[in-house]
Structure prediction request, 159 residues.
Amino acid sequence: MQKFSTTCFAVIAIFASCSTPDPAKKAACMNERNRESIIRWGDFNPKTGATKAYQFTGTAIRAKYLRENSTSDAILRQEQPMTTENFCKYLSLTLRTFDTIQTLHAPGADQARFIEYTNSITNTSARAIWNPIYQTYGSKEFRAVYDSLMTIIPNDERW
Prediction:
């Protein structure tokens, strides 16, 4: 009986150690370099500069982003914390996509969709823009990232 309980305990310990998340791994991308990162995605009007978007920052805070026109100041609304897992997952996804497709600029006349990444610490900025009416081959990967990013915005908080 003692041998059986020792075996059961060993098996349970092995499974528990395999399934317990490691906090250091969970937040591996939460570091000084990414502290000033901003991922922003949404829709804008190329003629007026009006923008309705969402963003999250290197401090794992997500918010709505509103800009009435190209000369107005941006307004952030409903700032909410997000999980470090989501921050790291979507930061990595976005950066990999920008690394793979380094340029995309195909806005529509009256509407455009975008994803942008900025980081003032590393002096980095990238923006992909496409016309949401068309599902072109060139915008395929960014459309997929956009759709993935939209999953972190609850339906009742969307524009």
Observations:
- Residues 4-26 have pLDDT under 50 and may be disordered.
- The longest strand covers residues 37-44.
